[in-house]
Amino acid sequence: MPHPRTKSAPAAAPQATLPDREAFTALLGRKGLRVTGQRLAIYDAALAIPDHFTAEDLLDKARAIDDSVSRATVYRALPIMVEAGVIREVDVGRDHKYYIANRDVGGVKIQLVCLDCDKIIEAAAPPIMDWYGKALCAKHNMEPATQRLQVTAHCLGCDRKIAAIRAKAK
Fold it and tell me: Architecture of domain 6-169 in CATH?
């Protein structure tokens, strides 16, 4: 089941095919790691979650595929899947990271993050953002690897915000 606090905005750019399992298994091989049923279950689970997820969300989904998947294997697989381009890591400044399957074709992302409920809405940025990042890097003799714009906000109808206001009023 998708994480209740996440939502993806419709993408303006065309959608790519899902990340290639071969890239993930090839990276495992280069790192001297075996391709196991647990690792493949984690891969399949990550691509089956349509929105942002935590490591614990991924563990639950992977265990639904293969009940022998361990928490440690999930936590070790996450950076490998990020490196292989299967998923992207999203840091919203909390004590845990979020991840999302890397379905979009390149481009800069804009993330709106609710400070109250951790809802994440992600959309493609306008082309000017991509141009500006590349121009700034060129000016400083660098090459861009990734770009993102993150806006923190408060959901106007957020239940947690309303509950906090009520608690303060008492």
Answer: Orthogonal Bundle (1.10)
